DNA sequence: ATGAAAGCGCTAACAC
DNA sequence: GTGTTAGCGCTTTCAT
């Protein structure tokens, strides 16, 4: 079934039918109704591919994320999807699996589809401008989120990770901790570095000693939270608190702590970056830096829509400020000697 | 940049360049290399939309799910994405938000995009064949998953929910429980009905009395697990165990149980449908019916690829058998009088 | 092994 | 208001 048949059936030309379908251009009310009725009757559904090619608008948005399975990105996608739906945009989803090589191939695939816009959260490896050259060259509007590129600033939505790191550390300091360990994110990411910077800033401001051996570089994955926490608990006897820089690693830390039969905060205090809805539901009291993720997804989508409207690369940055939720896991209960 | 420019630069015709890009048809080795080199040099990326229109193959697969945010569907998508990647297929993702009205609109949008295949998990409302008529009429190969249509069988991957319901109930009976409540899924779904059927089957076989007041119709959402559990704990004093028919409702149940300061299994035994990775990690011991979800996602994708290859509607059904993981939450500790 | 030409299903000037 | 016509950027016969 194509537009030509509708034209024949209705007695009008292809263009008139096209105008009805696209709902633009001059068509008399009666004509419109007549054509609409026929479309309804024969269950005609226009070919979006042909429309895209002809109009040079794909009405499609590509979302590129590092890991579909991660509930954080699930929530982001939910927010994006919500806005895209309302704007009749289709959503292509790609996962790079935190792999910069796969990411490169994904970029190529994405451009082939000629989406009207691109949303991208880069993989955890160190990224410079040249790593997204294909996207830049394509001229397609895009917005970054969460993770930043080192040598240039692009339109995007990011979190104030320095503030988050600061708040978490400050909470521990205010509870009386002196010897605070941190399990960071990878130093190849702005997020990893900024949260650490927040930690250092808080320690300095409050006149606490920053000791290199209290800094453990993690990689944002479960195992790294588990292993580093074990190390801390075994080697660093004076440590009374740990600031863990994301939720996956916190889950790993919880496992390590449980295996050692330690209690939070009695034996070890912690603050986590990123709240997890299950913490609350399951009655696990972990103080955490909190971000409204679905809402952020909506922000990201809106920013992209703006870029698409102006077909620009505005380099506009939206910074989302995290907050701290206290649930007593940060308390200092006994001082180790 | 289009194919014509590559043709000019290389001195060959559009057709030859096209053959190189599609890697099909006769092209001499030297010609191919020459053209490939030029494509590389000028960073030419073919227009997938034009290719789709011309070749009548979109290389795109649409995945329609009820709720993107639900980690169950996140895991499924991960599995699907894995297989689609390997087959160079793009993935369009649509969420119907468990809303049959939105679902209808989504179907329309999906067909417009002329995907090469469709993967669909219907929303929780009662579905008959007519509700997916648009898809059927389109002629596009599709596979259903998890949730079935009442009046006809279509190609798909489903779980043996009767067996799952049976295993869960049997575990409780074997632990010595007599008075077992069940919080079911909605009766508008095969899943809800089948899990209940499994429950009844186990009760009958083991000569336990099935009492209507032990059957609570839930809706698979958190609140319904919470509310129904509260009801059970308050009204049904003789109940020593609850079989909760999905993981979201189990989270709700856990909250209700915690609010009443009851212990599992000391005060109330439970078995949950669907394991949750966080149960284990967070040290929450809940016996549960387990399914390998990401693996299932891969099965689904493979089944669709088969359908696409044969461009058929085979009505082939794959049934995935769930298993039971026991973690002591099913134990009978004290008998109520 | 390569090229010429028609056409995929639609949109968008432009003409009337 | 409506129709005519020329593409959109490719693929795919059919020649040669």
UniProtKB/TrEMBL annotation, chains A, B:
<dbReference type="InterPro" id="IPR001387">
    <property type="entry name" value="Cro/C1-type_HTH"/>
</dbReference>
<dbReference type="GO" id="GO:0000976">
    <property type="term" value="F:transcription cis-regulatory region binding"/>
</dbReference>
<keyword id="KW-0805">Transcription regulation</keyword>
<dbReference type="InterPro" id="IPR010982">
    <property type="entry name" value="Lambda_DNA-bd_dom_sf"/>
</dbReference>
<dbReference type="GO" id="GO:0003700">
    <property type="term" value="F:DNA-binding transcription factor activity"/>
</dbReference>
<keyword id="KW-0804">Transcription</keyword>
<dbReference type="InterPro" id="IPR028082">
    <property type="entry name" value="Peripla_BP_I"/>
</dbReference>
<keyword id="KW-0238">DNA-binding</keyword>
<feature type="domain" description="HTH cro/C1-type">
    <location>
        <begin position="1"/>
        <end position="45"/>
    </location>
</feature>
<dbReference type="InterPro" id="IPR000843">
    <property type="entry name" value="HTH_LacI"/>
</dbReference>
<protein>
    <submittedName>
        <fullName>Transcriptional regulator, LacI family</fullName>
    </submittedName>
</protein>
<dbReference type="InterPro" id="IPR046335">
    <property type="entry name" value="LacI/GalR-like_sensor"/>
</dbReference>
<dbReference type="Pfam" id="PF00356">
    <property type="entry name" value="LacI"/>
</dbReference>
<feature type="domain" description="HTH lacI-type">
    <location>
        <begin position="1"/>
        <end position="55"/>
    </location>
</feature>
<dbReference type="Pfam" id="PF13377">
    <property type="entry name" value="Peripla_BP_3"/>
</dbReference>
């Amino acid at each position: 079934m194509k537009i030509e048949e509708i034209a024949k059936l209705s007695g009008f030309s292809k263009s008139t039918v096209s105008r009805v379908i696209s709902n633009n251009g001059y068509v008399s009310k009666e004509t419109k109704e007549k054509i609409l009725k026929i479309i309804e009757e024969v269950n005609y559904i226009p070919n979006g591919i042909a429309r895209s090619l002809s109009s040079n608008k794909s009405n499609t948005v590509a979302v590129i994320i590092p890991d579909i399975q991660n509930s954080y990105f699930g929530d982001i996608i939910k927010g994006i999807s919500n806005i895209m739906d309302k704007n009749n945009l289709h959503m292509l989803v790609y996962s790079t699996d935190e792999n910069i090589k796969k990411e490169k191939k994904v970029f190529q695939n994405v451009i082939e589809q000629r989406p009207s816009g691109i949303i991208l959260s880069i993989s955890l490896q160190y990224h410079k401008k040249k790593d997204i050259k294909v996207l830049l060259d394509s001229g397609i509007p895009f917005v970054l989120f969460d993770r930043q590129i080192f040598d240039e600033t692009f339109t995007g939505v990011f979190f104030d990770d320095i503030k988050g790191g600061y708040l978490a550390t400050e909470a521990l300091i205010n509870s009386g901790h002196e010897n605070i360990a941190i399990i960071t994110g990878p130093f190849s990411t702005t997020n990893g570095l900024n949260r650490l910077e927040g930690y250092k800033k808080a320690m300095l401001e409050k006149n606490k000693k920053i000791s290199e051996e209290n800094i453990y570089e993690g990689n944002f994955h479960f195992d790294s939270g588990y292993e580093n926490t074990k190390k801390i608990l075994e080697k660093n006897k004076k440590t009374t608190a740990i600031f863990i820089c994301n939720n996956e690693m916190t889950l790993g830390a919880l496992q390590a702590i449980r295996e050692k039969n330690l209690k939070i905060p009695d034996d070890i205090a912690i603050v986590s970056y990123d709240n997890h809805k299950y913490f609350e539901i399951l009655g696990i009291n972990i103080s955490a830096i909190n971000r409204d993720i679905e809402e952020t997804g909506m922000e990201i989508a809106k920013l992209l829509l703006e870029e698409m409207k102006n077909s620009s690369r505005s380099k506009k940055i939206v910074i989302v400020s995290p907050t701290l939720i206290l649930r007593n896991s940060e308390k200092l209960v006994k001082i180790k000697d």
